[in-house]
Amino acid sequence: EALGPQEYTGIKMEVAQWSDAAKAEIEGKVGGRKVFLVAATLRPETMYGQTNCFVSPTLKYGVFAVNEKEAFLCTSRAARNMAFQGTFSTRGQVHELLEIDGSKLVGTKIHAPLAVNPEVYVLPMETVLATKGTGVVTSVPSDSPDDYATLMDLRKKAEYYKIDPSWAAIDPVPVISTPTYGDMTAPALVKKLKINSPKDAKPLAEAKEIAYKEGFYNGTMLVGEFKGEPVQEAKTKVRESMIAQNLAIAYAE
Ligand code: A2H
């Protein structure tokens, strides 16, 4: 575990269309604000390859006022951290507009900033931790073994997970090329380590470690503003560019 604070990028994914279940709960409660799901990521340079977004189907989320125009959807734990980091106009204070079950968010259509596929859906991920980040995880299956394993499992068992197969239909997008694994690092590692399910925790942790190091030290950007540049350089540039464009926030814990 990291000793110092972890510096995440909070990706602002604006709601384009609520699921029916969420719509019924949100109606009339956000005061005309735009609502964003805020996903905490350590790999902002991969955002071109978002294919969906994950929430925990067993966690509670809140919608929190940022100011008169915007609201963020995340865990209340994350909202408290944001309040003390100056994210909200009411510094130090959390203004919760409503609470909602993660399960009801599934099927919501959102806008994924920078993504090659800008419209994506919210899907369930059982391994989302309540104690980390915002409880919202944007999914980049080309470069995250967890995201890839979960997406494949959702496709295999759409009925069991009660999802419409069309919500999980976007394929991984090549974003970063690495010398050892090509332009689909996570799928290559999931295959190599014979990972069959998002519950294969041990090999997934190993795959995650390898993918992270390989991408960071040896990866080259295949798309976007910093195409052709090493990931080591593009990482901070994409983060800063997204924050400057109001597509993301700095979030630490
Ligand atoms: B990363 P660390 Cl492409 N529960 O973003 C489970 N996982 C969570 C989470 C939570 N509450 N909050 C964030 N995460 C994920 C992109 C990515 C990530 C890629 C590759 C690897 C990777 C797209 N998903 O993470 O324990 C988020 O997924 C592996 C390092 O704080 C976040 O970054 O190190 C990462 O885990 C944070 O994990």
TrEMBL record:
Signal peptide: none annotated. Keywords: Aminoacyl-tRNA synthetase, ATP-binding, Ligase, Nucleotide-binding, Protein biosynthesis. One of its GO terms (biological process) is leucyl-tRNA aminoacylation. It comes from the Eukaryota. One of its GO terms (molecular function) is aminoacyl-tRNA deacylase activity. Coiled coil: none annotated. Belongs to the class-I aminoacyl-tRNA synthetase family. This is leucine--tRNA ligase. It comes from Phanerochaete sordida.
